[in-house]
């Protein structure tokens, strides 16, 4: 305790509340998280974990939606007073559209977006938010191109219908939240065509697009962010991260930034601007982990055609297709291990994988 009082800076700095951040905080963010930010995004907010990253990203989407509705004007006295009563207009009836088989976390808002296992949701109250069907693609992709295009179109039409229905019900959609790949939902992939169409729908309706990269970010797909394989016209409004990033948080576009963060009502916005511990900050810089991970994948000498096979631990062989730089990284096929007996040793397995 005495040490804290002697070191006033250590005692006063409270980045977890957004107050008095360390003087080097901006530099730490610039050298670590912002150095690997998704294309077209140069703003980031740190958090503690994946679920709270989703929670606060949703807050950003709600605030941006209401700010546009107000035309940039400050909240009215009625909005201020009714917000304490959990009633409109202070607590508006907005919604978030998610997808079947999605998983975004176990806190209340993130759990409302999750639709994988009943054990996560049973006995917990939840807002009645809409959810649509995530595409279920057939493999090999090249043999089912027509069927998969039809599946994308069907799911996008359902998204449009859900958005229109929510608006008619007086609960307009402020944000569409989805994973680039449904992980807990069974490793379900969406195509670039689907995500490009989803972004078009969001932009046409003034809705924020949130891509949850908590499980898919940090290079596992061959690009640092899996959504980079989709070649979106514009960056997504919000991109959440955690797990392999050694901290939580989300990237966001300028239109998501609260205009009241500093000035008239700082306390109103500080819950959206907390900061997780900075203990992990120097390590990625010293080891250059983020930049090393962000390096593009190169084909191995044993597979010049850029087709790689990943041999699972059990009965199946998964083929990973990287046929050309402009195609998405997708697991295109799995088949039984009939031609291999026993467990491959480490060296024999790794020669089938890309060099990092």
TrEMBL record:
Pfam families: Aminotran_3. It comes from the Eukaryota. One of its GO terms (molecular function) is 4-aminobutyrate:2-oxoglutarate transaminase activity. GO terms for biological process: gamma-aminobutyric acid catabolic process. Keywords: Aminotransferase, Pyridoxal phosphate, Transferase. One of its GO terms (cellular component) is mitochondrion. Residues 336-356 are annotated as: Disordered. Its cofactor is pyridoxal 5'-phosphate. It catalyses: 4-aminobutanoate + 2-oxoglutarate = succinate semialdehyde + L-glutamate. The keyword Transferase applies. Residues 345-356 have a biased composition (Basic and acidic residues). Belongs to the class-III pyridoxal-phosphate-dependent aminotransferase family. This is Uncharacterized protein.
């Amino acid at each position: 305790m005495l040490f804290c009082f002697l070191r006033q800076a250590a005692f006063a700095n409270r980045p977890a509340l957004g107050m008095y951040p360390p003087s080097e905080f901006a530099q730490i963010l610039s050298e670590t998280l912002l150095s690997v930010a998704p294309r077209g995004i140069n703003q980031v907010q740190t958090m503690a974990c994946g679920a709270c990253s989703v929670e606060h990203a949703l807050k950003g989407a709600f605030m941006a939606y209401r700010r546009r509705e107000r035309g940039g004007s400050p909240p009215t006295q009625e909005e201020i007073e009714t917000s304490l009563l959990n009633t409109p207009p202070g607590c508006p009836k907005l919604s978030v559209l998610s997808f079947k088989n999605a998983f975004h976390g176990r806190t209340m808002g993130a759990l409302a977006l999750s639709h994988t296992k009943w054990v996560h949701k049973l006995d917990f109250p939840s807002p009645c938010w809409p959810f649509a069907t995530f595409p279920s693609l057939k493999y090999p992709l090249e043999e089912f191109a027509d069927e998969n295009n039809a599946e994308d179109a069907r799911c996008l039409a359902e998204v449009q219908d859900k958005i229109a229905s929510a608006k008619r019900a007086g609960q307009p959609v402020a944000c569409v939240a989805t994973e680039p790949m449904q992980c807990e939902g069974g490793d379900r992939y969406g195509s670039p065509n689907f995500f490009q169409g989803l972004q078009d729908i969001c932009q046409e309706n003034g809705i924020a697009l949130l891509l949850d990269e908590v499980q898919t970010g940090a290079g596992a797909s061959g690009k640092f962010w899996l959504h980079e394989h989709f070649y979106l016209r514009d960056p997504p409004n919000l991109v959440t991260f955690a797990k392999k990033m050694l901290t939580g948080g989300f990237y966001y576009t300028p239109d998501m930034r609260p205009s009241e963060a500093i000035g008239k009502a700082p306390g109103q916005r500080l819950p959206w601007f907390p900061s997780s511990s900075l203990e992990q900050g120097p390590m990625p810089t010293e080891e250059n982990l983020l930049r090393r991970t962000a390096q593009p994948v190169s084909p191995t000498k044993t597979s010049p055609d850029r087709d790689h096979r990943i041999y699972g631990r059990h009965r199946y062989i998964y083929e990973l297709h990287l046929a050309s730089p402009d195609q998405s990284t997708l697991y295109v096929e799995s088949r039984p291990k009939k031609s291999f007996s026993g467990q491959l040793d480490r060296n024999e397995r790794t020669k089938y994988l890309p060099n990092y």
